[in-house]
Structure to design on (281 residues):
């Protein structure tokens, strides 16, 4: 198999409909190798799931994709432009088109929800205060928090805080939304509601979503594409729609991970089926 050429991949990204192209990416902490030879595409409109067992480097990959960590090798291109080869101004323009949410919501505790969501607007736009108030109200309504504008983070639940964090991530109408374990710490019902919200936003707004999660129900409920990282071989084992990997992956570890906790019905020879909401192209 020929080794992919990072420059060629970057040049053709706009032609293939890819929002993000990762090519031959190697990630290290000092001399400690985390992952190597990662190559995959995130297409426009995807809900792209970064999956794998504990300690495989899922969150580290996300941090590389949003520019927090410099790759040891390889490229991460956004619509044809490698982020780490871009100028500072180009990088800034890229970041303005991203929204990032964190496990805890990462809200500013001394600010109201309205102030939290409005913060990016005051920093990066010239909108008038009245316009910001209107837009903040709209973003909070999108995530089911209309009427909570004057609440502080300490006055709302964990699930509401995650939704407020999502509203803030959407403040600048990003092309790509990044999620790091959005369901962490939530009860099953709240986690399901958050999945439904993410999927609804993806479908209605056409936003490309990259999400780190190990929750199987979330993977199958919202994932249309993804990559599976392995901690032992320190590289990707498979890429594609989770539902397709479940049934057709050539890697036993991938199939085992994706079928964990479910009725496999191997004896009868029936196809493996996700528990609910299977997506995939």
């Amino acid at each position: 198999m020929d080794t992919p050429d990072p420059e060629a991949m970057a040049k053709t990204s706009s032609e293939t409909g890819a929002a993000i192209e990762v090519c031959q990416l190697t990630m290290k902490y000092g001399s400690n190798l985390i992952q190597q030879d990662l190559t995959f595409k995130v297409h426009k409109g995807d809900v792209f799931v970064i999956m794998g067992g504990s300690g495989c480097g899922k969150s580290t990959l996300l941090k590389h994709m949003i520019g927090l960590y410099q790759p040891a090798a390889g490229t991460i291109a956004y619509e044809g432009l490698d982020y780490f080869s871009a100028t500072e101004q180009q990088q800034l323009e890229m970041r303005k088109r991203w929204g990032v949410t964190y496990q805890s919501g990462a809200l500013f505790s001394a600010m109201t929800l309205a102030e939290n969501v409005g913060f990016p607007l005051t920093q990066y736009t010239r909108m008038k205060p009245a316009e910001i108030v209107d837009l903040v109200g709209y973003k909070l309504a999108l995530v089911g928090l209309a009427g909570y504008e004057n609440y502080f983070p300490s006055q709302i639940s964990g699930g509401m805080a995650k939704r407020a964090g999502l509203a803030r991530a959407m403040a600048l109408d990003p092309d790509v939304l990044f999620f790091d374990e959005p369901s962490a710490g939530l009860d099953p019902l709240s986690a399901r509601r958050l999945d439904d919200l993410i999927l609804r936003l993806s479908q209605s707004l056409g936003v490309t979503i990259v999400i780190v999660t190990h929750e199987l129900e979330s993977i199958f409920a919202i994932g249309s594409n993804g990559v599976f990282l392995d901690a032992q071989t320190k590289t990707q084992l498979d890429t594609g729609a989770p539902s397709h990997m479940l049934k057709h992956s050539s890697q036993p570890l991938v199939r085992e991970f994706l079928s964990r906790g479910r009725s496999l019905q191997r004896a009868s020879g029936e196809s493996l089926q996700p528990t609910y909401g299977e997506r995939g192209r």
